[in-house]
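re: ur question from yesterday

yeah so i grabbed the chain u mentioned. its 392 aa long if i counted rite. heres the sequnce exactly as i have it in my notes:
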Amino acid sequence: MSEGVLNGIRVLDFGQYIAGPFAAMLLAEQGADVIKVERPNGDPMRGEDAFMVWNRSKKGITLDLKKPGGLKIALDLAKKSDVIIENFKPGVADKLGIGYDRIKELNPRAVYCSISAFGAKGPYAGWQGYEQIVSTAATVYTEQGLATHPLYVVLPLASLYTAVDAAFDIVTGLCVRETTGRGQKIEASLFRSILSTFRQFNVDFEGMFRAPWGPTGPMPLYRPYQCKDGKWLFTALGNFKFFTQFALEMGHDEWLTDPLFEGAPFLIFPPRNAQVMALLKPIYKTKNRDEWLEQLGSQGLPVAPVQNIDDFMNYEQVIANGMVQTVKEPKKGNVKEMGIPVDVTGCPGKIKGPSPQPGQHTREVLKELGYSAQDIKRLKQEQAIKVAPRRK
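ran it thru and got these C-alpha cells back, copy pasting raw so excuse formatting
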C-alpha cells in the first residue's frame, strides 16, 4: 500500500495563510490528491519561505470566484471532491457561492472543513482574526511566566495546532462517511485549538506556572544551564528517581538529605530555588556541553542540547528520522524543508513536489474536467482564471 493511506481521496483546498494550507499539505503527503485554489492576486503568504512548505505536494490553480466562470469551475471541482477546506472569515464562503449548504446540495458525500479564527458562534464569530489576535485572546502571550508584561511568541502555535486538529477531524469525517455514506461539516478554529491545547497546562502547583520565570525559568532542576564552552544544556529532573540518579552521578549523594531540596512539587520548584541554581551553575561550568550530554544522557537522564534552527536541521536525531528533506523549489533551487511528521508502517507518505507556481496546473485540471482549449481561452479572456505560461 505504498501509494499512501489517503490514495484516491481528492481535496479541494481554498485555504490561505497557514492553518488551511498546512492541513491540506498533511493530507497530500499521506496520498490525497490536493488541488489548491488560489485567488488572482495570490495567497497572502506567497513570497514567504513558509509558503513553500505549507503548499508543497499540491496542484495549483488560480480562479476568480467572483466571476461566473471561476465559480462554475470551483463547483465542478467540488462535485468530484471528497474534502473541501476553506478558512475564510465566517460568511465569506457563502457569499462567494462555495459555502457548506451549496456544496452539500451538489455533493452530499463531501467532508467540508471550515476553519476560522474564533469559530462560527459567539460574539466574536464575525471578527477579523489572525494568529496574534487569537493568541492574545487565548492567554498565550500572558502565560509564559512573566507577571509584568505579555511575552510575544514567534511560532504561530494557534495556526499550527489548528491545522493538525483539522487534518485529524477530516480523516475522522472520512471514516464516518464510510459507515454512514454521508458527508460531514467540520468547524475548526484557531481559538478552540489553542485553548484546548494550551489550557491543559493551567495547573498552579503553588505558583510554579505563574511566578516570574526570567529568561531560563524558575525551576532549578528543570531548566537550561550554560556549560564550560558557553553552550547550553537542558536537564529535566522531574521526579525523585531522576534526581537521585543525578545526585549520585554528580558525586553529591548528600543532596538526597539536604533540606535545600525539600518541599518541591516534583522536585523541580523547591522553595529555595535561587540557592539551588547558585549551587548547580558552577558545576555545569566544569565541563563542555557535549561532555555533560554524553555523561548524563548515557545514564538515562533526560537531557538535551539547547539548539538554534541551524543546529536542529543538522541534528543527527532529525536526520536519522528523515525529518529534513531537500525539495527543489523553482525559484530557490534546493531547499531544506521539514519531512513528513507521521510515519505509517508500509505507507510512509511522500513529498510529491514543490509548492505550485500561480496557475501552474489550471490548464491540466480544467482539461480533466472536460473543458476544451476554447473554453480555457474564453475563461482567460474573462479573467476568471489564470494560467501559467507553458514551459519550454
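noticed a couple things. Residues 220 and 276 are 6 Å apart (CA to CA). also The chain is about 35% helix and 15% strand.
anyway ttyl
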